[in-house]
Amino acid sequence: MKKILIAGGTGFIGNYLHRFLTLRGFAVFVLTRHKSQDFHIAWHPEKKEIDLSALEGFQVYINLVGESIAKGAWTKKRKKRLLDSRVESTAFLRDCIEKLQKPPEVFISASGTGYYGDGKLLLLDEKSPKGEGFLADLCVAWENAAKTDKTRVVNARLGVVIGEGGGYLQETKWLYKMGLSASFGSGKQYVSWVFIQDLAEAMLFTINNPKIVGATNFCSPFSLQNADFVKQVAEIFGKKSFLRLPSFLLSLFFGAQKSAELFLFSQNIVPKKLQDAGFRFNYSKLENIYFQ
Q: Which pLDDT does position 291 carry in this prediction?
């Protein structure tokens, strides 16, 4: 039985992965600052504190650490926290891996499609260049922090994760249910997204496929323009979407940089590396998803 260790495993994606992988016969443990379960392993990355011996014997490490990008104004202090929460924890985990007697077979470390910046209408894959902006710079630092020659490293560039109980829908579900959802700006900018079940399946596929190395897009092969994305999510909840928030209001509410990078940048991204390796998405289109 393979043993898997998840850092950041108490959040939305981590909890789902824990259940998903456990049901498939893996022994899954979670790195956490607050140990309350037998499968928890305590660590304090900001203090560089951990029992290194507790990290031995795992074949897979999955790193999901990082504070929410969407919460709070992007002040200098907040941006430093967003960066440090990812880079310092990831670098500490990488340093731990390098000290192990037997490192894991694979280290899957989260990153984001923010790496590509504003791609306009261009089709982007893993070979596309880094974009401009805070998120692009953050992703580069995050991915660099995971680099090691002690194991296979996969930088999982995640799109917007769709699923019940967390992530994008947790923050916006009430708007959709009340019929108050709105597209942003022109609505023509592309949104890269992935359904949580496909994300978990792609993670498992990656664990079992040693040819997948380095930057890998974890997103549906069919990005949607923002107006269509909002419309289709609204239809999941049996509602219609007809509102639009102009760019100047977004800038007023969220600040110019945050509103541009989170809501107005266009990311028409394809998961070329996963598809070339043979992975097939079960939920490649939002219209195939149904919630209660």
A: 56
Which domain, by its residues, includes 91? 3-288
CATH of the domain at 169: 3.40.50.720
CB of 121 closer than 8 Å to CB of 186 = no
Mind listing the pLDDT tens digit for each residue in 224-255?
A: 999 999 999 998 888 888 889 999 999 999 99
Q: What is the pTM of this model?
A: 0.94
Report the number of distinct structural domains present in the chain. Answer: 1
- Beta strands, E only, the chain: 3-7, 27-32, 40-44, 49-50, 60-63, 106-112, 123-124, 152-158, 160-162, 182-184, 190-191, 193-195, 214-218, 224-225, 243-245, 268-269
Residue 160, by phi and psi: left (phi above 0), alpha (psi -120 to 50) or beta? beta
Q: Is the dihedral of CA 218, 140, 152, 45 positive or negative?
A: negative
Instruction: List strand residue ranges (DSSP E) for 144-254, in order.
Output: 152-158, 160-162, 182-184, 190-191, 193-195, 214-218, 224-225, 243-245
